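Filed under: proteins

Residues; backbone shape codes:
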Amino acid sequence: MARHIGRRKFLATLCGAAAWPLAARAQQGSAIKRIGVLMNVAADDPEGQARIVAFVQGLQQLGWSDGRNVQIDIRWGGGDPERIHKYAAELVALAPDAILATSTIVVRPLQQATHTVPIVFTSVIDPVGGGFVDSLARPGGNTTGFTLFEYGLSGKWPELLKQIAPSVTRAAVLRDATITTSVGQFAVIQAVAPSLGVELSPAGVRDAGEIERGLSTFAREPNGGVIVTGSPLTAVHRNLIITLAARHQLPAIYPYRYFATSGGLISYGPDSIDPYRRAAAYVDRILKGEKPEAAGAGADQVRTGHQPQDSEDARARNSIIGTRTRPTR
């Protein structure tokens, strides 16, 4: 069964998009533009749904309405590389005017599938290191978008973990070693950890079994904590990671607020929703005839995310969820 849900049903339910009759569609003819969207998470992921809502609302503010003057085709990868490659080819075959791509594991297969359809990415940490763009100022090719944060932010995670759990002397670092962004984040964490007296143990996140084995083995020794890096796979498996950290009584810090709102102890990272609203402006300019480079014209054509957000588990202090707080406890 296809993993993507009905485009109109989803958007009408969450965003109030109107379903125009077929006769109206026929009258619009070529005026209707087409946008493909490829998400790295599953269709029932609340964070993924919130991102789509933000993107569609951004388009609506710019005068685009699904079923009236634009058609939006959404596919949900669910963290499965094979499925993502399949949907990348499927979306390109629809000949869209632009494609919104979420995360590293989505951008790469889309670039392999097309060198002409404009791609606007979000939730990519290192687009230059990943080979997606030539530079932030001059991305080149058919791709532009938004990078979430610089690697230096990763150094805050061991610091904050030590602040909330001073007894921690060992930390399991959950990361996907197959992508350059995780390698970069881990390098920064490695540089900071010795000054905090914390020994690091890298742990893979390829699938649920690897995550469970890694954390179960790590938890056998005392004074442990967990640092979860930002990657598509840690996002897909976040509920399992949060459950295992709680089961083994391991204090853990996460890269985005939606980990904390899902039950994680604490998070520190950029706003994961706002880039989708901002991406709507890039897509709007492409739909009006600009090339990807021109759509991001300015000092930095590939834009960076907003300032970090930090939050605690709703079970601990529900009052601060959704607000900015000081990271020091």
